[in-house]
Design goal:
This protein has helices at about 1-25, 45-50, 135-145, 155-165, 195-200, and strands spanning about 25-30, 35-45, 60-70, 75-85, 95-110, 115, 120-125, 130, 175, 185. By secondary structure, it is α+β, with helices and mostly antiparallel strands.
Length: about 200
């Protein structure tokens, strides 16, 4: 009986830690005035573990979030810097890959929750809180090269290919402000890594 009770206590503690880790990325939007807000978030291995994915196991990052709220939408800009541990596709050795990501997403107020595109979502008008952990992870994942090569194995040609992979198909988010009539323009190219991320979420 003691062993069983101990297992329950351990599970409860782990669940509490998970909730605590992900709660760092909660933003209370209820009652916010129509203006700009800034948030700073930082985490490491625990973040990638709690996201329940297999792409990244270890890493550390800092994210500065700029939130612009208007009567009809919320625009979020994420600037993330840090590094993650990846496994080389050739040698299977682990190495540190730097992260420097600057991306945006728009949440439009509506009657229901719906993902319109990779960069535009509808959220209920009565939504009190949003959690931005998923957005941060998605943008970190998209910033990684498709070909994961250890720095010692990268030739000039490989470096060119890696840069080409990052630039080709990159989504660009633009917005003129936070007024109701503002429209968002995005490139027609769709990054194939979005599809890989969708498969991880299933």
């Amino acid at each position: 009986m003691f062993f069983i009770k101990l297992k329950h206590i351990t599970f409860a503690l782990l669940l509490t830690e998970k909730v605590k880790e992900l709660s760092k990325y909660n933003i209370d939007i209820y009652g916010l005035e129509d203006k700009q807000y800034d948030y700073d978030m930082e985490s490491g291995d625990a973040f990638f573990e709690e996201m329940e994915q297999e792409l990244i196991e270890y890493g550390h990052f800092k994210t500065h979030v700029v939130l612009n709220k208007s009567a009809t939408m919320i625009q979020l800009r994420f600037h993330t810097i840090g590094s993650v541990t990846l496994t080389c596709d050739r040698s299977l050795e682990t190495f540190e890959e730097p992260i420097d990501s600057d991306e945006r997403i728009i949440l439009k107020f509506g009657d229901h929750n719906e993902e319109l595109t990779e960069e535009i979502e509808i959220i209920g008008r009565n939504t009190n809180r949003i959690n931005v952990a998923r957005y941060i992870f998605d943008f970190i994942a998209l910033s990684l090269p498709v070909k994961k090569l250890h720095p010692s194995l990268r030739s000039e040609e490989d470096e060119f290919d890696l840069e080409d992979d990052e630039e080709e198909g990159t989504l660009v988010y633009t917005s003129g402000g936070t007024e109701e009539g503002d429209e968002t323009e995005e490139e027609e190219k769709v990054d194939p890594r979005w599809e890989a991320l969708k498969k991880l979420k299933k």
